Structure formats: C-alpha cells, structure tokens
C-alpha cells in the first residue's frame, strides 16, 4: 500500500491559520486517507501490544494510569511507524501553524485509552517540557473515528495565556484546579468527535483534557510533538522537565539548540 501522501503538502487557508493563532488548537479534516490510517492502526497496535508493560487492571490504577496506555518514541522501534512520524505533510502543517521556518522531532507517543478507561485530566503539556519558547505543537492522530463516547480531546480555546495551573502535572488536582479556573474565564470548551482522517494540532500551553472511554473498544491515537528547529533547551523547572532533558534531549546543553540524534529536522523551508 502506498503511503506517498505522507510527504505531499496540505495547504491551510487563512481562516484556519487565524483560528489556530487565536485559539492555540485546530482540528483539520481529511489529512490522511482511511486506508493509510487502517494500515498504521494495525502496525502501531501490534507494537503497543508488544511494548506495553502495564499489568495492573484498570480498577487498580491511579487517575493517570486509567487515562491511557502510553508508549514513547515508536519511530525508533519500527521503520513503518517512522514513515508516519517523519511525515513531511504533518511536519509542514506544524511549521505553518507555528509560523516557523522548520520543525524538529521532540518525541512521539501512542496514547491508547482502553475500553472503560477514565478521564484525562485538564493539563498543559508544556509543564513537562524544558523548552525555551511556546513554538511547540502536538499532532493528535486518531487511528479510527473517535465518537464522543470514546473520549476525544476537549480544548479550552484561547487558554494558552492563562498562567494558573501551568505548574500542575496531569492529576486529580489539575482536573479540579484548572477546571475551576476555566469556569470563571470566557474560554469556550470545545469537545467534538473526530472523523476518520481528521487530526488536531495544539500548542504546548493550551489547557485540554479528554472524557472517559465508555465503550468496549480501545481509543487508539498516535501523537507526535514538533518544535521549532531553533528551539533552545531551558533550565528544567521540575522533575518532569529533568526527565525529558535526559530522555528526549540527550547531551544537549542548557541554552543550546536541541539538536541531539533524537531531534532530527523533519521539515525546513
């Protein structure tokens, strides 16, 4: 099966670019065709089954553990998955939305919310990242349609400028405290199903969550995090950022461009 579309351009219109600039997220339809997603669903599912180390039953896990199975940097585990993660189509979209001249890989992760899995609490991803600017973006690629019952992403549109809650990891506390803050702001909360081929992009500081998966099927999602090709490593501010420095930016010095062997340039103008 041909995966050539992964390296073909996808042109955004000005309304889409403006929407992202204002709201720090966007959903885009028909980015990938159903047959390509079905192929990667099979490949990625097999690798997740192979690499998953979670042995506890759902009822015995904490809130984070109930939210999803999480497997990192599959691009290094499988050459077929690398084709998707290194897609110039996706990387170009990331660069266009962030208005940068090129993007590097930060890392990828499979996020599989099992049938009966719980909520993903309100959080901002960049809490975990030792990155010097907000020019970082996550593409969320469902490997099948995601109806409301399976727990699609919910975004607090325009919340990227809210400082309250940025110091919280994904937890019951973040769900409560960020949720309370958002209730007294005018940020519109948007939670919509994803069609097959529809993907979303969101910035590092936008608050987002996902509802529970109330179906019997696993919600299978692959994600990749892209950063400005000139992104500098900042001094870590918490244990999560120290771990990310050691894991995803090995050997990079504070204040230097994050250009380790794990951070190749995926798109450049």
Structure described in brief:
The chain is an alpha+beta fold.
What does this structure look like?
With 269 residues, the protein is α+β, with helices and mostly antiparallel strands. It has a domain of 187 residues: Jelly Rolls (Sandwich). The protein is 27% helix and 22% strand. Strands 1, 2, 3, 5, 8, 10 and 11 form a seven-stranded antiparallel beta sheet that branches. A four-stranded antiparallel beta sheet has the order 4-9-6-7. InterPro entries: Phytyl_CoA_dOase-like.
Tell me, briefly, the overall form: globular
Mean pLDDT: 96
**What is the N-to-C succession of helices and strands?**
HEHHEHHEEEEHEEEEHE
**CATH-defined fold name of the domain at 4-121 and 134-158 and 190-233:** Jelly Rolls
Number of strands: 11
State the fourth-level CATH superfamily of the domain at 4-121 and 134-158 and 190-233: q2cbj1_9rhob like domain
Which structural class best describes the helix and strand composition? alpha+beta
Oligomerization: single chain
Strand content: 15-25%
Question: Which architecture of the domain at 4-121 and 134-158 and 190-233 per CATH?
Answer: Sandwich
User: N- to C-terminal separation?
Assistant: 29 Å
The value of Rg in angstroms is: 17 Å
The total count of helices amounts to 7
Characterize the main sheet: 7 strands, antiparallel
Low-confidence stretches: none
Organism: Flagellimonas algicola
Pfam families: PhyH
Keywords: Dioxygenase, Oxidoreductase
InterPro entries: Phytyl_CoA_dOase-like
